[in-house]
Design goal:
By secondary structure, this protein is an alpha+beta fold. It has 3 domains: 153 residues, Beta-Lactamase (2-Layer Sandwich); 90 residues, Helix Hairpins (Orthogonal Bundle), CATH 1.10.287.130; 143 residues, Histidine kinase-like ATPase, C-terminal domain (Heat Shock Protein 90), CATH 3.30.565.10. The protein has 8 helices and 14 strands. The strands form 3 sheets. Strands 1, 2, 3, 4, 5 and 6 form a 6-stranded mixed sheet that branches. The protein has a 5-stranded mixed sheet with strand order 8-10-11-13-12, covered by helices on one side. The chain has a 3-stranded antiparallel sheet with strand order 7-9-14. The longest helix is centred in the middle third of the chain and has 57 residues. The chain starts with a helix and ends in an 18-residue tail after the last strand.
């Protein structure tokens, strides 16, 4: 059964029960009031009869005035043996064991309903004494009866009215319950339509309107929040898939050149056994160089393929020590470049190996674009790591793309590198909650700034220096 129909049914049943209870209570109260008036009139006349005491059978029974209900239209006197001694009103009332018990004096009075000749009567029997014709006093019962026809007629009409009200009330409750259910469940219907739309179109941009700050409104907010999370996850997944596809496409393109060149040199060596020793050495030197370039490119691709996956557990590390060891490595690899460092003690949270890889790439990139005998300046302060060279700088049109994968600017001609080094720097920075910027120095040369969240600065750290593995040049 649909939820809307169940809500309508529950509302109708609840209202029906309430109306039936009200109708039943109203009917019982009215019935008791009407019958109570008849009983009061009978009791009033009974009191007058009992006050009169023993009486002769010839006279009529006393009764209250008409404004107090008047005399009972039917009355009779019954002896203790059940004999009817006197009857008034032209109607003989039934005598039962209870009446005889009252006549004998064992019971004071007793009300009961009887039907005589098609008339519904209310009868009250009271004990009294009568004087017989021989002067003797006999114990007897006086039966006073009033018709209940008018009361029954009023109650019959009242029952019809209450039944009509119950039927109309239940029908109205069902109609109003259906309207209320439609209004209350409209947001749920909207949720259903939105879910169906998303299932059919896979469009996660749909949102529910929040109409009120109630449970349904909270459900709409939760549903919208869930859609936002799903849309964000979907967008991140799509971006990741696109990035991986682009990486594979770019890697295929970049790997083709060194692999082709390597294969060509090897084929020349295999198919030309009579080449000179100098030519053979030159080809073997090219093979070794191309193998190293290929290894470096594969290593960079593996590094980038990690995406946002952390390479290890973050820990508190001394950034200045990592940079100092990267500078020492740079001096060993490029002895014709002078490195000048200014390193303040700085503690950051991160993975030492990844941070060292990023700093190595920045220093290698600066050394690659610096002319022999020039200076590379390296700094560490609370804002992060700065690397500045005194080379030709970065063409303005290349600045927005220097951190793109496989991007090689106008100044890259004739220089080794895969175009992945700075992309790795950007990836490491973002993984550690930081960023990397590139710009041209005011006079000449390029300047890079790796910004990282700093835990503490200007204090001697507690971590031991980390020894990074030597890695080939990156750009």
């Amino acid at each position: 059964m649909p939820l809307r129909r169940r809500v309508t049914l529950v509302a109708a049943v609840a209202v029906a029960i309430a109306i039936l209870l009200v109708a039943l209570v109203s009917y019982l109260v009215v019935r008791d009031q009407l019958r109570g008036q008849v009983d009061d009139a009978l009791s009033g006349q009974a009191i007058l009869v009992q006050q009169e005491g023993n009486r002769a059978l010839g006279g009529g029974l006393p009764g209250p005035p008409p404004n107090a209900g008047g005399r009972a239209p039917y009355a009779q006197v019954v002896g203790s043996d059940g004999t009817v001694l006197l009857s008034q009103g032209g109607l003989t009332l039934p005598v039962d064991s209870t009446t005889r018990t009252v006549a004998s004096g064992d019971t004071d009075h007793r009300f009961r309903d009887v039907t005589v000749g098609g008339s519904h009567l209310r009868v009250l029997a009271i004990h009294t004494g009568v004087v017989l014709s021989n002067g003797q006093v006999q114990s007897a019962a006086v039966q006073l009866a009033r018709p209940l026809g008018p009361v029954d007629h009023v109650l019959s009409n009242l029952r019809l009215i209450l039944l009509g009200l119950c039927a109309g009330g239940i029908a109205l409750a069902a109609a109003l319950g259906r309207i209320a259910a439609r209004r209350v469940l409209a947001p749920l219907a909207e949720v259903t339509r939105t879910a169906e739309h998303i299932g059919e179109t896979e469009d996660l941009s749909s949102r529910l309107a929040v109409h009120a700050d109630d449970e349904v409104g909270q459900l709409a907010r939760r549903f919208n929040w869930m859609l936002e999370r799903l849309q964000g996850s979907r967008s991140a997944l799509d971006n990741s898939v696109r990035a991986q596809r682009q990486l594979v496409a770019d890697a295929s393109h970049e790997l083709r050149t060194p692999v082709t060149s390597l294969r060509t040199n090897i084929e020349v060596l295999l198919e030309s056994p009579h080449i000179s020793e100098d030519e053979r050495r030159r080809l073997l030197h090219d093979v070794v160089e191309q193998s190293e370039e290929l290894s470096a490119l594969v290593g960079d691709l593996i590094e980038l393929a990690r995406g946002d996956e952390p390479a290890g557990t973050p820990e508190e590390v001394r950034l200045d020590r990592i940079v100092a060891e990267s500078v020492d490595r740079g001096r060993r690899h490029t002895p014709d470049i002078e490195f000048v460092e200014s390193l303040e003690p700085v503690i950051v949270s991160g993975v030492p190996e990844r941070l060292g890889r990023a700093v190595n790439n920045l220093i290698d990139n600066a050394a690659r674009y610096s002319p022999p005998g020039s200076t590379v300046e390296v700094t560490v302060d609370p804002t992060g790591v700065g690397v500045r060279d005194h080379g030709p700088g970065i063409p303005p049109e290349d600045l927005p793309h220097v951190f793109d994968r496989f991007f090689r600017g106008q100044n890259s001609a004739g220089r080794q590198g895969s175009g992945l080094g700075l992309a790795i720097v950007k990836q490491v920075a973002e993984q550690h909650g930081g960023s990397v910027l590139a710009n041209n120095a005011p006079d000449h040369g390029a300047e890079f700034r790796l910004r990282l969240p700093v835990l503490e600065a200007g204090t001697e750290g507690v971590n031991q220096p980390w020894e990074p593995e030597a890695s080939p040049s990156r750009s």
